[in-house]
Amino acid sequence: MTKLFLQAINGQKTGKVPFWFMRQAGRYLPEYMALRKDAGSFLDMAYNPDFAVEVTLQPIRRFDMDAAILFSDILTVPHALGQHLEFITGKGPQLDPIRNANDLGRLKFEDDKFHGHLKPVYETVSRLSDELPKDKTLIGFSGAPWTVATYMVEGGSSKDFKYTKSFAAGDPAGFQRLMDLLVASTAEYLIKQADHGAEALQIFDSWSGVLNEVMFQRWVIEPTKRLVEKVKSAHPDIPVIGFPKGAGLMYRNYADQTGITAVAFDQSLPLDFVRDELQSKMCVQGALDNGLLLAGGQPMLDEAARIIDALKGGPFVFNLGHGVIKETPPEHVAELSKFLKSVEL
Ligand code: CP3
To answer: Which residue of 34, 177, 193, 321 could cross-link 287, Cys pair, CB 3.0 to 4.6 Å?
Structure first.
C-alpha cells in the first residue's frame, strides 16, 4: 500500500485529501501540557525520546492526520554546533549571538560531538518509525540555513533581522562561512533522520520573506539547493518539502531552482498563482490561515473548501500557512480534520 501523503508529495493526484498541520503537537493540547509539566523544559522534552515519541503521536491519536512530524526544533542544529541555547517561557529561544566572523570560532562541527548531541533525536525517529501506524508518514525536518542563521546571529527571535542583514551585507564572505557550516551540518542531520526512518523531510525557511531578490537568491535559494543536493545524493528517493514562508513572487524561482520535491506555501499567495505557477510543476502543500483555525466554525470550513476547490486538479496536501496557535481549541482541529476526511476529490 502506498501511503496517501507520499502519493501526493511525489506528484500524484489523490482521491482523498491528505493532511497534517504544522505544530500539530504542542501547547494547544492538554495532553501535551500535562507531559510538559513532568519533562521540565521544552528542550528536555525534545531530547528525551520517551517524551518526544509520545508527544509526536498525541495529535495522530486524536485527529488521525496522514503524517506525523518529528517532535524537535530547528535550533537543535546550532545547539549541537556548541552554541548556548535556552527556551525561556514567554520569550522564546535565547542564544549567545554570533555577530561576526570572529564569533564563528565558538562553533565546532565535529562528527562525533555533533551526532552524539543529536542521538536522542535519531532514537526518537527510529522508535516513531516502528510505532507509527503503517498508513501514516513520518516527516523529519530542519530549519533552512538562512532561518537558522537569523536565530544564531540575532540571539533569538527578531522583527527586523538587523544584525543578520548587516552581517550578510557587510561581510558576505564571513557570512558565507556560517551558511556553509549550516549547509554541511544540516545535510548530515537530515541524512541521519532519513537513515533512522524518516520518510519525508521538510525544510523550514520561516524568514525567507524578509530578503530582497539578490539576497534571496544568495542566502535562500543557493544554500537550499546545496542542502537538497547533499540529502538526495545519500537518499535519492526521499521527498523533500521546501517551505520558504512569505517568499511571495520568489516562490517561483525557489520551486524551479532548489531541487525540492514539493513546495509548502503560506496563505499570502493567491490560489491561482499556486495552481498555475507551482502546482503545474510539483505537489503543493498548504495553506489555511492559522487564524481561521483559531476562529473555527463556518469561516474556517468555507476557506478550507475554497483551497481544496482551487487545488483539487493536481497533487496537493492540506496544511496551514503557519503553525497551530497555542490558544486554538482542539475542537476546531477536530472539526477541520473531520471535514477534510469527508472530502472526495
Ligand atoms: O509539531 C510540529 O510542528 C513539530 C515540532 C516543531 C517545533 N518547532 C516544536 C516547538 C517544529 C517543526 C518546529 C520548527 C521551528 N522552530 C521553526 C520553523 C517553523 C515556524 O514556526 O516558523 C522555528 C522558527 C522554530 C524556533 C522556535 N521554537 C521558536 C521561535 C519557538 C518559540 C515560539 C513558541 O511558539 O513558543 C520555539 C518553541 C517550540 N518549538 C515549541 C514547540 C512545540 C513551544 C515550546 C513549549 O513551550 O512547549
So the answer is: 321
pLDDT at 280: 98
| 214-231: pLDDT as tens digits | 999 999 999 999 999 999
CA distance 224 to 216: 11
Q: Among 19, 21, 23, which is best to mutate for testing ligand 1, by the most ligand atoms less than 8 A from CB?
A: 23
CB 14 within 8 A of CB 345: yes
Residue 146's alpha-carbon distances to 204, 223, 247, 312, in angstroms, are: 10, 8, 13, 32
For residues 242 and 136, give the distance between their C-alpha atoms in angstroms, rounded to a whole number. Answer: 20
Cα–Cα nearest to 8, from 336, 329, 328, 316: 316
Per-domain boundaries in the chain: 4-342
What lies within 8 Å, CB to CB, of 192 at 6+ separation is: 115, 118, 122
Query: Looking at the DSSP assignment, which residues form a beta bridge with residue 317?
Result: 285
- 86 has which bridge partners? 94
State the distance from the centre of ligand 1 to the C-alpha of 194, rounded, in angstroms. 21
Average pLDDT over residues 132-141: 98
Whether the model pTM is above 0.85: yes
**Which numbered atom of ligand 1 lies nearest the CA of 202?**
12
Q: Would you identify the CATH topology of the domain 4-342?
A: TIM Barrel (3.20.20)
Q: pLDDT tens for residues 36-73?
A: 999 989 999 999 999 999 999 999 999 999 999 999 99
Q: If you average pLDDT over every residue of the chain, what do you get?
A: 97
d(Cα 182, Cα 5) in Å, to the nearest integer?
29
Contacts of residue 246, defined as CB under 8 A and 6 or more positions apart, other chains included, come to: 206, 207, 208, 209, 210, 266, 268
* Strand residue runs (E) in 52-152: 67-69, 85-88, 92-95, 137-143
Above 80 in pLDDT, residue 1? no
Q: Ligand 1 atom closest to Cα of 245?
A: 22
- How far apart are alpha carbons 37 and 200 in whole angstroms? 31
Q: Within its chain, how far is the Cα of 144 from the centroid?
A: 9
For ligand 1, atom 38: residue with the closest CA: 92
